[in-house]
Amino acid sequence: EIGPTMARVSDGGVSLRGSCAEVVPVMRLAAPAIANNALAMLLQLVDAAFVGRLGAVELAAAALGNAYFSMLWYFILGVSTALDTLASQAHGAGDSRSVRQWGWTAGIVLLAMCVPAGALLYMAEWVVVHLFRQRAETAR
Q1: Which of 3, 112, 121, 133 is deepest in the core (most CB within 10 A)?
Q2: Where are the domains of the chain?
Q3: Where in this chain does the entry annotate a coiled-coil region (predicted)?
């Protein structure tokens, strides 16, 4: 389905002018998310610059820690996005009971995922040395 600002042309396609008119509202909606992602990347860059001044081993340790944490975090974040779809569908259908049920289910599932993630973070030094095959001095 085409948006309200788009117009169909004679061959059944969508006009370019109508498509461009859709960009402005979408960009207004997306701008905070774009800024958030850009600033998060900038934060990692600044962190690396500061840690890099300490030494090569410290920079390697920070990079490994960041990669290890991100691996766990983005897996949990990906699972949490299921709530967006399921709760939105229930809300759109006017089913507030299902919205609450999906919220509780997501909370329980995410809590259950955070427990092993916390344990893996606690064991990070062992994981980095034995699974990532890095030196112990880098893992500390």
Answers
A1: 121
A2: 1-53, 55-140
A3: none
